[in-house]
Amino acid sequence: MGQQDPIKKAIFDEAKSIGFDEVGFLNADLSSVDANAIADDLKSFVNEGRHGSMAWMADRLYERSHPKALWPDAKTVIVLASNYGPGEDPRYLLEEQRAGNISVYARGKDYHDIVKKRLKALGRWMAQTYGCELKVFVDTAPVPEKPLAELAGIGWQGKHTNVVSNNFGSWLFLGAIYTTLDLAPDLSHRNQCGTCNACITACPTNAFPEPYKLDARRCISYLTIEHKGPIPEEFRALMGNRIYGCDDCLAACPWNKFARVASESHFHARAELHSPPLEELVKLDDKTFREVFSGSPIKRIGRDRFVRNVLIAIGNSADISFIDDVRALKRCDDEADIVRDAACWAEKQLISLS
Fold this sequence. Notes:
Mean pLDDT: 95
Number of strands: 8
Low-confidence stretches: none
Strand content: 5-15%
Largest sheet: 4 strands, antiparallel
Number of helices: 17
Shape: elongated
């Protein structure tokens, strides 16, 4: 960040004191080249159906394509990033067949709550100090956070389509503040992927038709979180014990050699979510599910989708001791079709693999 602007420096320092790890600035009135690149990528993602059932991607495509399309009064976008780096390569848990593998970002407290609280605190300070108008966004609004982060100098969009940082690797939560303050932009970050394809080859379901393009319909994160129906059978065995999200493409990035463990304790894994026993998760009813995942982003997918994922992991475990729990859910004891479907598949798998 250019330190010559005293307002930018003050905002930068305040953001750091609140807990953000990276701060970048860009002009809300994007250049035609940058605006067209963002719009074209979004349009191709939707037109080719790679967004799957995420209708919200298509519904607000125009607002998502440009900061001023969402808020015409915005003059500057401030992109804020929070490091959630784990203490180890999370892929080692893929070998623990009796445990569920939860994506690193979802093992702690819901990041939406933490990042939004920080954004609001920074926003209040900015409004009080400079009398500006602003809007804060984290993940749930039609904001193209990742390309904006690259333009603001936070990092670059890697071939896995996520932001990569020189300082924190692939482990960053992003938020944005749109403001009426007219501030000088930072330099955009250059792409440093080079010829590396580690993230592409690490994907167990071949979800990248080409570098920098994701087909969500093949992505385990999409299938276990966003997809509401039965998971297509071609992907079930490939899911292994991944019950919520997938970190393979992120973890494979060589830039993680610069990653650091998250300083925010709420981003650290809760003990019960680090490698939770499948034998306990498969027995969850709706009430218990809500209690166990209170304050967790996992709660939003609901018990039925979660247990569907757990049953697929059980089917991949080759552990016949799970058979009674699977059959209990198969025998129409469960009201959810997706649970019974997954239970039938898991039973067949256990019998064939054991």
